[in-house]
Amino acid sequence: MKDITLKEIAIKLGISITTVSKALKNYPDVSEKTKNAVLEMAKSLHFTPNSFAVNLRTRESKTIGLIIPEVVHHFFSNVIKGIIAEAEKSGYLVIILQSSESKELEIKQVDLLMNKRVDGILLSLSNESNDDDHLKEIIRRDVPFVMFDKISKLINCSKVIINDQKAAFNATEHLIGKGCKRIAHIRGPVNPQNAIDRFLGYKKALEKHNILFDKSLVYTCKGSEFEEGYDFAKQIITEHNDIDGIFCVTDIVAIGAINYLNEINISIPKQIKVIGFSNWFMGQVITPKLSTIDQPGYDMGVESFNLLLEEMNCRRETKPFTPRTIELPTKIIERESTL
Amino acid sequence: MKDITLKEIAIKLGISITTVSKALKNYPDVSEKTKNAVLEMAKSLHFTPNSFAVNLRTRESKTIGLIIPEVVHHFFSNVIKGIIAEAEKSGYLVIILQSSESKELEIKQVDLLMNKRVDGILLSLSNESNDDDHLKEIIRRDVPFVMFDKISKLINCSKVIINDQKAAFNATEHLIGKGCKRIAHIRGPVNPQNAIDRFLGYKKALEKHNILFDKSLVYTCKGSEFEEGYDFAKQIITEHNDIDGIFCVTDIVAIGAINYLNEINISIPKQIKVIGFSNWFMGQVITPKLSTIDQPGYDMGVESFNLLLEEMNCRRETKPFTPRTIELPTKIIERESTL
DNA sequence: TTGTAGGCGTTATCAG
DNA sequence: CTGATAACGCCTACAA
Q: Which of A141, A147, A200, B210 has a CA-to-CA distance to B255 between 20 and 30 Å?
């Protein structure tokens, strides 16, 4: 099956390639008659422009790249979905790469995408990354670039985030409001800003309510997994028998903790209240149902793409573009685990 | 930042573009000296070949398309992960599109990908699709094509599947082995082959064990959602008070059912045993832990890509390629819900 | 060993 | 209104 080209249509119709091209792109300076003839012929031959040639000419591919720490992940897969859906609306396709929380991979993938000459890059940082050179290189090469959720504050690009500190503050304060006085925090890994901010929010809420911050009540995850929640809950119980609340960096960790507490028949929320973060679907389904912070993944995807689109449009028209940061609202979801 | 081209290197070095090109591609007929000079210059200028131009010349883009019914989905996101990871190994990038179980969208997306001239297409059918024209068109246009999981038996392409019928048979037989005599089946939507095969497996297991098939015990989901599991469980309980086992088309449906049964204090597995399908992570975490069929999503992604790769390689070398079907093994995961 | 020339398929400019 | 011509950046016979 040979591909149809402008040339073939031109030959069949006995006109020039130029005219065919113009007719197909609805240029005003083509007679109705020839335009119709071309359109008809193109249709009957199932002509579609060779996108490789179009890319070369127009210097854009209507394709963007997305680098994400983990594909199998409730929050991130919602972001992906939002990005893909929104991109499709304006005719953009999305290439997805997974950094698996590895800086080394992330660096390679950024390079790969730039060499592919995608029109823009969307990225959420791996746990190992900060304001590293590969990100600066994106800026230097002037490739439209938006970071979301796990960002680096020091990179000068558009960003879509939530206020992790405030949300964590609210979560902790919610626990306090329900009467908790000794609150443990199972926090995320040391490096990502995300985890730091949530920890800070926790600390601030304690301070505001004159609860002494006790750093032995803070447990640090390596990867924020179910098992870590389970194991840390066990550790918390053995090390501190006076705990009455746990704020977990993410729902899956909270569910791990709940699983352990259920196992040893500690009653939630009566003896210990638990709150998570992210609003994973699963939280509604376990016993007791998990209170959490709703983090709008899909919307974050949508906003991220739109910000990128804006920048790509400016680039095309060689207009200046000033990076912006969008902060999306979160809200507390109160369920049984903190009643 | 203007892009570096072969031409610029050539001018800077006072040699021809051809020589530069050859040097970079390690042609044997370039002197060591010029080769080194070129390599060095290319490096210092951060030259990377313009992929648009390369695509146009070589007629391939090292990019494949993936159409998937739903991105936010335990099983499918594992497949995606497998595909991306495997593709990256051979330098392929993956464009992901979501059909949202809509045939109309799927048709558009297939068209989109072909017009983009991706090197190959990976697809899992939407619930509305069968052996439709858009799939035949892929074959007709001779685009390398692999279907996985939700396939159409009538399309002549490579496939990666599990034996749904056998797996469902095993699940049902497992229930029977545990003493169940009245087994309901919450099945998937009417159209997809998947759901049909699982239903058939259920039926065959009953037959083999001389249990009368009662079609009033079969409940049909529209979308295989949590709520459907919940609602059908309620319906089952009111319509048939003698049920002692439920085989659900997928874990999320099973978890919906379990949630209802827990609510009305029907004891699982004592009064009713429940088994799901897919081995979603969540099944390990609820009470009681869910028995299920393990469906290897990641591997399915890996195998699918490799099959596609084979076909793409044959295409490039204009060798013939005969479609193959790979059937991946499944296994029963026995947990508390069928003890 | 190096370079010339033509082409991949489109689009843009400019002259007729 | 139409068409010739020249790019876009790279690759590859074929000449020199």
A: B210
Question: Which nucleotides on chain D have any atom < 7 A from a protein Cβ?
Answer: 1-5, 7-13
Interface mutation vs chain A, best among B52, B138, B145, B335, most A CBs within 10 Å: B52
CA of A296: how far to CAs of A81, A169, A217, B293, in Å? 12, 18, 29, 32
Task: Report CA(B54)–C1'(C2) in Å, whole number.
Answer: 23
Residue A127: count other Cβ atoms within 10 Å of its Cβ.
22
Instruction: Look at residue A214 in the predicted model and tell me its pLDDT.
Output: 97
Q: What is the DSSP string of B279-319?
A: --GGGGTSSSPPBEEE--HHHHHHHHHHHHHHHHHHHHTT-
Residue to substitute from B5, B43, B63, B71, interface A, most A β-carbons within 10 A: B71
Q: What is the pLDDT of residue B52?
A: 96
Tokens of B243: 């049920």
Q: What angle do the packed helices A103-116 and A133-140 form, to 10 degrees?
A: 20
Nearest CA-CA partner of A76 in A254, A304, A300: A300
- Global pTM reads 0.95
Sequence-distant (6+) residues with CB within 8 A of A334 are A174, A291
β partners of residue B64: B94, B120
C-alpha to C-alpha distance for B69 and B189, rounded to whole angstroms: 14
> What are the C-alpha distances in Å from B88 to residues B64, B123, B260, B294?
11, 18, 43, 26
Looking at chain B, list the stretches that DSSP marks H as alpha helix, in order from N- to C-terminal side: 6-13, 17-24, 32-44, 51-58, 74-89, 103-116, 133-140, 164-177, 193-208, 226-239, 251-263, 297-316
CB B72 to CB A94 under 8 A? Answer: no
Helix (H) or strand (E) holding A234: helix A226-239
- What pLDDT, in 10s, does the model give residues B221-245? 999 999 999 999 999 999 999 999 9
Residue with minimal CA–C1' distance to C8 is: B57
pLDDT tens readout for residues B284-320: 999 999 999 999 999 999 999 999 999 999 998 888 9
* Chain B contact present for A292, CB below 8 A: no
Beta bridge partners of A248: A186
The answer for A 226-255 residues in CB contact with B (under 8 A) is 226, 255
In contact, B200 and B167? CB cutoff 8 Å: no
Mean pLDDT of B255-260: 97
Quick one: pLDDT at residue B1? 54
- A115–B51 CB contact, under 8 Å: yes
Q: What is the pLDDT of residue A1?
A: 55
Contact A81 B98 (CB under 8 A): yes
Residues facing B291 on adjacent strands: B275
